[in-house]
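Hi R.,

Here's the chain you asked about this morning:
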Amino acid sequence: MKLKQHVARITPSIVVDQYRFRKALRKLEQAELAGCNTDKLRSDSDPSLSDVFSCGTIDGMWFDTQKKIKEFMIPDGTGGVNPGDRRAIYYLISAIKPKSVLEIGTHIGASTFHIASALHNASVKMPSVTTVDIYDVNSPADKPWLKHGASHSPVEVIDSLGYGSFVEFVKDTSFNYAEKCQRTFDFIFLDGDHSATTVYQEIPLALKLLNKDGIILLHDYFPNMKPLWTNSSVIPGPFLATERLRREGVNIKVRPLGELPWPTKMGTHVTSLALLLKDDCQGK
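And the predicted structure, written out as tokens:
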């Protein structure tokens, strides 16, 4: 074992977290001031966002969907969203019924499959899902999905489920894609590079791509930089990025989804998913 790996293994997680925090903060402080317009962001007081996870109708749709998706044996613990988070995303999409969804960070496609399934099962007319990743997640030469324990490429799963007509895979950075994008979206899921600087720059770009009453969903948001699970590390980026934006007067509020009605990871029901919404109380 290399010395660097050995040191990382024996170092207490709290020390690792503090190092990551200081490093992320230094880089974030060097980032240029981001201009944000939250006019199109959905309000935090929107009643349609309440009781999403206790909807019996969505429950039935979810269990039918799982019968189909389970056939592809999508692995857990590969760096993507865990099964509990996938279910939460499915319920959100089913309840909100966005016509257009942008996902940053495809990985093996676990969240992509659930977003597309929710749109299809909710009978959304002319839906569209665009999922962006810096790697070619469907490369027939590299087969990156095999490295993460998946047996099928993301596009193979999407086509097998019958969603190929409305799901688009894009190889690009979030910045490049957003800068040249000529369309807008109802729902944007930011799950790519979780560094503070990147998220700080991604949020303003995402706001520009939103339709009226659009929603942004964050992954790996750790409120107040506290661990969400026992003996787990903290990913500082999304929290640091949103806190800087708020300090700069950007009218946003982060609503962590917190405890879900079903298991997520490490024997808990806790999720790191969080909604980014317009803060109705700011300035009052």
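The mean pLDDT is 91.

Let me know if you need anything else.
M.
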